[in-house]
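Re-run with default settings, no changes from the original entry. Doing this only to confirm the output is reproducible before filing.
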Amino acid sequence: MSYHRLPLDRYAARLRRLSPSCGPVRLVGIDGHAGSGKSTFATRLAEALGGAPVLRLDDIASHDALFGWTDRLRAQVLDPLAHGRTAHYETYDWHGRRFDGVRALPPADVVLVEGVGAGRREVRPFLAELVWLDRAAEASWERGRARDGAAQREFWDGWIPAEREHFARDPSRPFSQQLVRECPEGYEVREGPSGTSPHRPDVTHREEPPAVR
């Protein structure tokens, strides 16, 4: 199956028509390798959604728990949203190496959660849709290293084996409904390995752009 152009405004409109997946919220996961472009895609999609809230998993993870954050995510974010309440979660300062603040996340119609592990098995039951940024691991890591520079060399040396281990035990890509990649004109998409979202409403092909079937 080939990639097709992804108009973010039309994709945003489709996400709004999904069935809620976490209480009243349509929670959309954006996963991929570190450096694959998740943050930028989430920012642009949030803008297309009219300012949808975005949970960055970099704020949830920490140096001593790169992937051991699911209990906090459940207690501080998923459970409140599932009950229609505003979530309040602690945010981590990667330079100060401590949790130093609290951020609010309202139960909006669509909430984006982006970061490595957004599609892990503990999170998937709460997702209306899972998107995978389809850039190869080595290319993503090279891009991330170049972006962060020498100051973060030690962090990347530890991160890469941790990410390899995480995805070996708990892969996200096989469960994604959409594979998205960057292109010169913006983004392209094709159906992911998991196919149609379980929370997708019944629609006809005329009602939806073919790129996001």
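The domain at 4-212 is CATH 3.40.50.300 (Rossmann fold). The chain is about 30% helix and 25% strand.
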